[in-house]
């Protein structure tokens, strides 16, 4: 890649090419993912989304946003403090996501129902808490949808004691097509710049939500969808929709 390619237009060009690739290549996987989501919603389940680091951006894309499905719940390591009574100082540990038992604690605090779906998001798909969450959900009979980079996860060794990665555990895997290390534009002399996984991840999440909503409509059911709280009546209407899932979804200030 030339020096001239490391530019705004260079990133736009390269990222749009990958986005088009994702749109075309992930049709079957998006359909399968949408099937899991629609099945969960029709069974009065909740879609629990979990990720760490920058993967939390995609958790927010799925859970509790305008235009998104109401029965969605954001899971986070911060739940240990917000709902589990841990001292906030525990979040100062940058290696917390690699500790055993963290995922089980977050799962237990969520108290999911059997029909609930778990969406686990990780570009590498190898961090301990990510793999633990997927394993814990499967052990409790939940379906698991993964959003990860197959290129990255296949290029790095497993870190979990089981020797497994997120993609090995999930019922359906959405590949964000991000390169190893996530950055898209190669720099002269080595290295790269401009992460891609959030951009492609958003596309996959919203394609899945759109397809799931379409399936609910085709079954004669109106998708429970959030309206922007910043339009007249939006906040009040959303509160009414949330009543059905009282105690099962969390909506905190962000």
Outline the structure in words.
The model has no long low-confidence stretch (mean pLDDT 95). Strands 2-1-3-4-5 form a five-stranded parallel β-sheet, sandwiched between helices. A two-stranded antiparallel sheet has the order 6-7. It contains ten helices and seven strands. The N and C termini lie far apart (39 Å). The relative contact order is 0.19. Helix 1 (8-25) runs parallel beside helix 9 (197-218), helix 3 (56-62) runs parallel beside helix 9 (197-218) and helix 5 (102-110) crosses helix 6. By secondary structure, it is an alpha/beta fold.
What keywords describe this structure?
alpha/beta, five-stranded parallel beta sheet, 13% strand, two-stranded antiparallel ribbon, 254 residues, 10 helices
List the helices and strands and how they pair.
Elements: H1 8-25, H2 27-42, E1 47-51, H3 56-62, E2 72-75, H4 79-82, H5 102-110, E3 117-121, H6 128-139, E4 143-148, H7 150-155, H8 166-169, E5 172-175, E6 183-186, E7 192-195, H9 197-218, H10 234-242
Parallel strand pairs: 1-2, 1-3, 3-4, 4-5
Antiparallel strand pairs: 6-7
Helix pairs in contact: 1-9, 2-9, 3-9, 5-6
